[in-house]
Every structure is written in C-alpha cells, then in structure tokens.
Amino acid sequence: MAPRESYDILVIGGGVNGTGTARDCAMRGLATALVEKRDVASGASGANSGMIHGGIRYLPADPQVTRLSCIDSGYIQKIAPHLLFRIPFIFPMRRKGPRPSLVEKAYLYGAEVVFSMYDDYQPFKRGKPSSRLSAEETRALEPGIRPDIVGAVTTDEWGIDPQRLCVANALSARAHGADVFLHARVVGFVRASDGRVLGAEVEQDGRRFVLRARVVLNASGPWSPRVAALAGVTVKLRPGKGVHLTLDRRISNYGVICTAVDGRQIFVYPHEQSSIIGTTDDDYYGDPDHIPITRDEVEYLFQGIESIFPSIRRARVVRAWAGVRPTLWKYGRTEDALSREHALIDHADHGAPGLYSLVGGKLASYRVMAEETTDVLSRALHRFARCRTHEEPLPGGEGVPDVAELAAEHRFPEWTVSRCVYRHGKLADRILAAAHDEPWLRSMLCPCEQVTYAEAVWCLREELVRTLSDLRRRCRLGMGPCQGADCAGAAAQLLARERRLSPGETERELRVFLAERWSGQRPVLAGESMGQQEITRALYRETP
Amino acid sequence: MTRVLVVGGGVAGLTAALAAREAGAEVAIVSRGPGASALVSGAVEVAPGGGPPVEAARALADRLPGHPYARLRDRLGELPGALSLLRRSLSPHLSEEGGRFVTPLGGVRPAALAQVSQAAGAIRAGERIAVAGFRHHPGLSASERIAERLAGEGIAASSVTLDWLDRVERLGWTIFELARLLDDPAEAARLGESIRRAKPQADRVLLPAFVGIERPEQSLKLVSEAAGVACGERLAGLPTLPGLRLRRAMDRALGAPELHPVAGEVVELRDGHARVDRESGEEELRFDVAVLASGKYVGGGIRCGRSFVEPLGGLPVHDGQGELNGRAPERLLADAPCGPCPAFEAGVRIDGSSRPLDATGAPVAWLRAAGAVLAGSDFAADGAGLGLAAFTGYLAGRSAAAGRG
Ligand SMILES: Cc1cc2nc3c(=O)[nH]c(=O)nc-3n(C[C@H](O)[C@H](O)[C@H](O)COP(=O)(O)OP(=O)(O)OC[C@H]3O[C@@H](n4cnc5c(N)ncnc54)[C@H](O)[C@@H]3O)c2cc1C
Ligand SMILES: Cc1cc2nc3c(=O)[nH]c(=O)nc-3n(C[C@H](O)[C@H](O)[C@H](O)COP(=O)(O)OP(=O)(O)OC[C@H]3O[C@@H](n4cnc5c(N)ncnc54)[C@H](O)[C@@H]3O)c2cc1C
Q1: Per-residue confidence (pLDDT) for residue B238, from 0 to 100
Q2: Which residues, 6+ apart, have CB-to-CB distance to B104 below 8 Å?
Q3: Across residues B6-25, what is the average pLDDT?
Q4: pLDDT score recorded for residue B141
Q5: CA geometry: angle at A219 spanning A218 and A223, to 5°?
C-alpha cells in the first residue's frame, strides 16, 4: 500500500488501544494511519484473560475504574454482540474444620458484601446480580469443587475473543478510510528543527518509508517506553507479566475463583472451546518480544486452582502463554493493587510536541480510552466531530444471525456455523454462502476450532492476513488440542495458494507457525501432550 | 517350548511375535489398541538416505552412537530378513522394493518398502510425473505446490486437475469416504477416465493415497487401465489412509490363532507373570520371556510426567546419551519443535541380545525390548521408523524364543 502524502493522525501499535483509537479517529473524519510491527493483537491485547469484566478487583481501591469499565462493557455488547459470551463465576470459600467457623462465615459474608456492591454496576453491562450458594448448591453446579467449603458467592462477567475485537476495530478503521500497515515497524521519528514530531520512519519488508502526520500517537503498550525513547522522551511503566494456561477442553461450566498460595485470586474459566487458567502478575522489565515462561509459574497456577478444584491435576494443558500488562508506574503498591487506569501523555512538555503516548488501561475500557484520546487529539487538530464508536456496530456486529437457519440455508453443520457466527457475526452469512458456488470451501480446515475453508479464505482475502499466525489470530486456527498438527500443513498450502508463495516461502511460513506453537507448548509439555507432540514431529519433520 | 509374551501390537510387536513363532516358541501377543504404527504415511523407513537398507542403517549407527542400530550393529545383516518377514506376513500389503516417494508437502523421501499402491508412485529416473489434484477438494488440491516443489528439486513434475469429484453430490468428503468409494471397480474406472480426459503430459500420474481400502493394488490397476497412463499414490499426511490399511493388514496377520492375540492392557509385568486387563475381566498370563514392544509416547510404552517412566518393567529411561531418570523433562526439550530432542529419544537401553538393562546396567534375563520404546530412537529426527520396529522386533522375537539368559 502506498502511503498518503500526509495524515492527520499516525497511530503506532495495533493492540486494542491502537486499533480502537484508529477507528475512532477515522470515524471522525481524520486522515488516519495505523502501523503495527507484527500483527494486530500480537501484544498484550492478544495475551490477556479475554474478559470484558467490570473490574471488581479494582472496586475497593478504585471504583472509578470499575464504573468506567462496566459502562463500556455495555457499549461493547452493543457494537459487537456476537463476540461476547457470559461467564458466570463462582467464588467458593474453604473451611478448615468439619463445620464452618464463625470467622469463615464472616469471610463469606464479606465477599457477599463486595459482590453486592458490584451488583450496583452490573446493569450497565447486562450482568446478573450476585447470589449466595450453600456448599451443596455450589457442588451441584460444579462437582469439581472440593466438598470442604463454607459456601460460595457468584458473580457474572463477559468473555470475548480479544484478537477478534482488535481485528474488528482495525477493519472498521480501514472501512472508514484509514490506512493500516501491518508487519511495519516504527524505527524512528521525523523531527522539525524545534523538536516537533512530523511523522515516523517505518520499516516494512526490508524497505523504509516515512509516514507524515500532524499528530503521532504512541499506543505500543508494553513497548511504549522503547518507542518513546526513539523520540528521546520517557514513558515509565511498571510492566506486569501474566501467564495463562489453555486446557484441551472446557472442564467446568462456570468460572471458579481460587486463591493462590500468596493470597492472590486466580481463575479457571470456560472460554470459547477450552478452559483457561490465569493468571500470574510479576514485574517484568525484559524484552516484551520474547517473554519466557517457567515451570514454576505453571506450578503456581496449578497449586492455586488445585486448592479449590483438585481434579485440575488430571487436566491436559495444551499451552502456556504470556503477556505484559502495560501498567502505569506508581510507587509503593503491590502488583495487583496497581491501578489499570490509563494516561494520555502529551510529550510537548518533554520537547517532542506532536507526540502523545497512550498507556495503561484495560481491554474492557479500550473504547472509552480511545474516545478520550481522540477527543484530545482532535482538539489539537482543531477538529470537533462527535464520537460514534459506542453507537455504530463493529463489522459483523449489526446483528447475530440465527445459527440453525444459516446452517439449513448453507448446508453446514450447526456447530460449525455457530463458531463462524461467533467470530464474524452477521458476516457469517456471506462467508458461508460462498460455498454454494465453490463447494471445496465446505471442507474443514481446522477441526478443533471448526474453521472451514470458507472462513479461512474469507480471512485471507478480507482481513489483512499475511502469515499463518495472522490467520490463527483471525479464526483460532491451530489453537485447539492438537495445536496445529492437523491443520498447519493444509493451511500453509492454502496460504501459499492465496498469496502465491514459492515452495521455500511456504515452508518458511509453516516452520515459523510451528515454532510459535511450540514456544507455548514447551513450558507445559508432559503427559498426553507428549504423544501429540510425537505425532506433530513425525508429520512435520521436513520443516525442522 | 519357550512361552513368549509380546506386549504391544504395533509393527515391533507383530514382528517379534512372528519371529518368535517362526523360531518355534509358543506365542501370545497383547495389545490394547493401535499405536504409532497406525499413523504412518505408508512408507517403511529404515534410515534416511537412499541405497541398500543395511548400509543406510549402518550409516545412521555411525552418526548416532546411542541409536539402537549402533547397539545392534553386529546384527544389521539380519535387517533384510526382518523386512522380508514383515512383508510376507502382511502380504499383499507391501511392495517388494523401495524407492523414493513424494510426501504431502512435496518433499521426496527414500524408503525400503512401501504399500503396493504407493510403490507404483515411486519416482523413477527420467520419467515425467503429473501430480493430480481435484477442484472440489481442498485437501487434495495442493497439487500445484507439490509439483512446484518437486520441480525445484530437479524432478520433471507438473500438476493436473481432475474432474472426478465434480459430479459427486455430497461435499466435504473425508479421505476415508473417498477411498471407500474407490473400492468399487466402476468408481475406480471413473477416476481413471477423468485422468484420461485431463490429458496429463506425463509418464506417471501421482494420486493422493486414497485409491481404495480393501484392495488398493487392484483398484489402482483399474484406474491406470482406464487412464491409459501408469498411476501411483503419494505418501499420506493425517488423517492417513495408509495407516488404516496397515492396521487392517496387521489385524489380519495378528488374527492368526497360532499367535494367540489378546485384546487388552498389560497392567502388571513381573518375571513369569503378566496381569492383563480385558473386557471380560482380569487375566493372568504366564510366560518364560516377555517382549516389551509398547512404543513410545503414542503407544504408551514411555510416559513423561514430572519425570520419565517406563511403566511396565519399571526400567530406567535413557536417551541416546545417558540416563533421564531424575532429570527435569523441560530441560530435555529442544528450541525447535521438530529437530533432534532428547525427550523424544527417551526409552529403554538394550544389550546386543535385545535384553533391556536395569538400573545397575545388567541385562534383564526374562525381558526383550523392541521398536519405538528403545532409547536413542526418535523417528522424527533420525528417520528410522517402521524399519527399525521390524528389525528390532525380529531380533527380540528370535532372542526370546531362544529362552531366558
Ligand atoms: C496477562 C494479562 C491479563 C489481562 N487481562 C485483562 C482482562 O481480562 N481484561 C481486561 O480488560 N484487560 C486485561 N489486560 C490488560 C489489557 O490486555 C491491556 O491493557 C491492553 O491489551 C493493552 O493494549 P495496548 O493496545 O495498549 O497494547 P498492546 O496490545 O501490547 O499493543 C501494542 C502494539 O504495539 C506494537 N508495537 C510495539 N512496538 C512497535 C513499533 N516500534 N512499531 C509498530 N508497532 C509496535 C506491538 O507489536 C503491539 O501489537 C490483561 C493484560 C495481560 C498482559
Ligand atoms: C504420525 C506418525 C507418522 C509416521 N510415519 C511413518 C512412516 O511413514 N514410515 C515409517 O517408517 N515410520 C513412521 N512413523 C514411525 C513409526 O510409526 C514408529 O516408529 C513405529 O510404528 C513404532 O512401532 P512400535 O511397534 O514400536 O510402536 P507402536 O506402533 O506405537 O505400538 C505400540 C503398541 O503397544 C501397545 N501397548 C503399549 N502399552 C501396552 C500395554 N501396557 N498393554 C497392551 N498394549 C500396550 C499399544 O497399544 C500399541 O499397539 C510415524 C510415526 C508417527 C507418530
């Protein structure tokens, strides 16, 4: 894509903040460019818990964060109804003796009070009010929970596919006229003699070019200190590394809140086709591009979940993944209590007028952050259009089609259709309809995640996909129990066909994809997964 | 007569049972289900590199001193006998000769033997080949890219698209359904006619490995006749029809009453006794010598939790270099997913008579071991697959028949 002569706004970073802000800017008529060094949602936005929660854990310290995210959670439901799914949570309280002690009862009561305070905010996001369960009721709902509990309190949150959320924002930005440059890295800034930032120097496919803009927004999340440093200015973060585990299937119907050995709360919860265990929170000042995961972190999570959900030890973990929270630096508090509140920093005060950094925040409140940011940037540009990102649906979010009807009309299995509708909303109709003219699109490419050729081809053609991993982020290809053993080869062939890759390039794509899968499998590889890996190794031994 | 109990119904176990029986032992073979042998692409691989199998295996032994071929170096002369025993017992499943075969990703791989319908697809010097694909089946339409990659390796290859599937109404066929279809001679002829219509500019047409389940050699003949050009199959990926064919051929061979096949799981193995969990309940089997042919992780012969375990004999687990017991698995995983990796070499060590070594390094007189359960073998990295299983199974079976000691 040839860049324009000049833009109003250049957004650096294709995470939820970058794509969300680019969308808002584009919708307000600003000439917008977005640059992302890898793919959308390849940073923190693709490695979080995948929850649009209202942030109950910030309630005691920072109710404003809770309120903002609840309100915005409601908006996200409105603009992307297909992408959200309800996750009811159970918070069981353990007891030491054969009968609950007074103190234990008081604890449960305390939890009930906190959750009922949260209930005040639930209506903003169509959440259900909390309730209190006896030990028996708790075990009736979730038999995996250990019997020696006082009881439990429930609460209600929403899950989301965070990759799809970012992709939808990027596609919407593009549809509103923004230029989106993926796999394009900002390597420096263009400055005027007075220090003003006039644009950025970008490297893509080994070529360098300049994107000029009147305002530049650094939305590079955990990388923002590094990007800011390119302009000689400082952004100070206290980055918090978080590890999650993905199981091979859903092992509970409800999210279960457990207490880790250090008293932190961690969860096991159903998410799309699997269960997720998360998360850790530790200071991490290393390279955000290569976040190591240790067996100790995995063990920490296991122990915490085991304290409430003992059978977790028998579950098969298919991968571990890590992200870095771009948390604002504040002195003195522990990791968990750090506010996720965001900041928009104007670097004019640091000798780099024209450059802003947007840091912090949460997935759940990305939209309002984008709105506030766009307000400030518009003002700097003397443009005053109204924000509409809470009204206008994201692509596909115009409605949620009926799965049974679509299945009958396009002759696909309902299960397959339901996954496609989940990921693409209203667009699923068009995606599946293509198979009437091209029957080969009916075949299944990734059985674990029910990705048909029809969906994969759509993503390849319409959703800014370059690599196999990009395709994975669009449709979860290769994210199931076999971690790509089944589909990687065929997907590489399809990518090659669509992008006209040479055999060497195809092999390279496959190798990179498998290596990326491996990096998450390796920290948890044991038990049954060894057999799976023996198969994967045998199948792909040509691509070492 | 020596009573030999074989644990594991993969190619190693089958060959061990056959060899022991041939050597005059009384045999029983216990298997709880298909292992890695049922997942193969169709070629019987002895060692990487072309040429005579014995030499290829010797070269591998030279390169990897911890490999089972190195342990059994003096016995490598018996490799052809082992392969021949496997071929005879599975007849007519396997070809007489090996060759170079085309992989699903368009690579070329040498193998000592192959399934007959795939042997017909071996690359022959000076021939032009056409890689066949189908418009309406994405998994079968990678033909252009396979041809392109072959051409890159100096093979005269082109691709050809067939209309055989166009008239088929139900869509999204699996490879097994298509293969079942091709068991019908009329359908095989129709496939052949579609090849004729496509006028491939080639001496040989390479089809996916799907030409029939029951009698692929006959189906392929019908296809070739109708096509007017020689046809053969490529190797398979997953799901694998050749794996299914091998499994069926093995089931037939194992069905022989003199092998006393037992469907069940050996849950305990001690000197002289095995406890077997069967559908009908538990059963005690007695034996003089047992053969451990329980595979690696897929088969279940080796397990890896917090440490490496051989669950039946409680034998120490080694890789090609040394003992793995007590070593953290995560330290034995390589940086790349598919290259050499100690954790996947895990297995039991044997002496030159196929006897596994216990914790003191002494051979266990009442046991033999064969196949993927052997330390130092890692098919994905060393290319010694079914060939190694057949060879080590053969030696273990014969040694077991000769009695303890
Ligand atoms: C473990 C964990 C759990 C979390 N759980 C939740 C949760 O459940 N709910 C919730 O609301 N929030 C959660 N969060 C927080 C949320 O994920 C983040 O706040 C949010 O994703 C930050 O988005 P971002 O766009 O600022 O950063 P990122 O998503 O990291 O995006 C920054 C992008 O900038 C790109 N980039 C970097 N350098 C350059 C360059 N030089 N040129 C071009 N591009 C560049 C990167 O590749 C990256 O894609 C969690 C975070 C983590 C890590
Ligand atoms: C995906 C894949 C593709 C491959 N492709 C090829 C190929 O194309 N060519 C090639 O030459 N090699 C190939 N290989 C390698 C080859 O399949 C193996 O090396 C070989 O099959 C090993 O044979 P085995 O008999 O030792 O083990 P397996 O075939 O795994 O057999 C072990 C058997 O032991 C049984 N067992 C284990 N424990 C017990 C117990 N306690 N009680 C009862 N039974 C038990 C299992 O059920 C199983 O039947 C491939 C491997 C894989 C994984």
Answers
A1: 86
A2: A489, B41, B142, B146, B234, B235, B236, B237
A3: 98
A4: 65
A5: 90
The better pLDDT of the pair A496, A335 is held by A496
Alpha-carbon span B265 to B300, nearest angstrom:
11
Distance of CA A296 from the midpoint of ligand 1 (Å): 24
Mean pLDDT of B350-358: 97
**Residue with CA nearest ligand 2 atom 53:** A535
Measured between beta carbons, the chain A residues lying within 8 angstroms of B152 are 503-504
The pLDDT score that the predictor gives to residue A52 is: 92
Indicate yes or no: CB of B380 within 8 angstroms of CB of A489: no
What pTM was estimated for this model as a whole?
A: 0.95
Nearest protein CA to atom 26 of ligand 2, as residue: B371
Q: Which of A422, A432, A403 lies closest to A476 in space, CA to CA?
A: A422
For ligand 1, whether the C-beta of A239 sits within 6 Å is no
Instruction: Order the strands of the B289-292 sheet from edge to edge.
Output: B261-263, B26-31, B3-7, B289-292, B367-369
Beta-bridge partner residues of B230: B204
ipTM of the complex: 0.97
Residues across chain A: 544
What separation in angstroms does the CA of A341 have from each of A67, A338, A367, B169?
A: 12, 9, 13, 57
- Is the Cβ of A316 closer than 8 Å to some Cβ of chain B? no
A288 prior amide bond cis, ω within 30: no
State the pLDDT at residue B174: 82
Chosen for mutation from A295, A542, A543 (greatest number of chain B CBs closer than 10 Å) is A542
Residue A344 makes CB contacts below 8 A (sequence gap 6+) with: A356, A357, A358, A372, A373, A376
CB of residue B302 inside a 6 A radius of ligand 2: no
A266 in ligand 1 pocket by Cβ < 6 Å?
Answer: no
> Is 60 exceeded by the pLDDT of residue A324?
yes
- Residue A440 to residue B136, Cβ atoms within 8 A: yes
Block residue for tokens 């198969």: A535
Measured distance CA(B192)–CA(A441) in Å, rounded: 25
